[in-house]
Write a sequence for this structure.
């Protein structure tokens, strides 16, 4: 859960008192319980950016950025086995459904070559 405004009351059962979470709080629930962390509001809002059609990256590994894009698109990007791509990190805000613009960014900014075949885009 991400809180972006107001205050949210979270109850974790009868053994623990309720928690009050304000704007900027991020609550993660697991089988072991819940953990909350306080972040600046802008950082908390980034957690929700995919809901409004954007992906936000900060020094993100290329493989992680591509995995995130592939979650939202039918055209899947595939990375060549080149070890030189393992060190690529990037940052920026991108429309989650505009894979072509992201590929052009990679071609221009990182001198990558791409091959498009059907529903796949190969990066090297």
């Amino acid at each position: 859960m991400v809180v972006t405004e107001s205050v949210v009351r979270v109850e974790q059962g009868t053994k623990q008192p309720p928690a009050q979470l304000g704007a900027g709080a991020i609550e993660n629930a697991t089988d072991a319980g819940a953990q909350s962390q306080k972040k600046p509001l802008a950082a908390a809002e980034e957690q929700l950016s995919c809901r409004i059609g954007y992906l936000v990256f900060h020094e993100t590994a290329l493989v992680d950025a591509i995995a995130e894009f592939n979650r939202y698109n039918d055209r899947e990007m595939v990375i060549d086995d080149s070890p030189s791509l393992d060190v690529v990190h990037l940052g920026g805000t991108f429309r989650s459904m505009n894979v072509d613009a992201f590929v052009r960014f990679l071609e221009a900014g990182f001198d990558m070559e791409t091959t498009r075949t059907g529903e796949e885009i190969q990066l090297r």
In short: The CA atoms of residues 106 and 112 lie 6 Å apart. The mean pLDDT is 85.
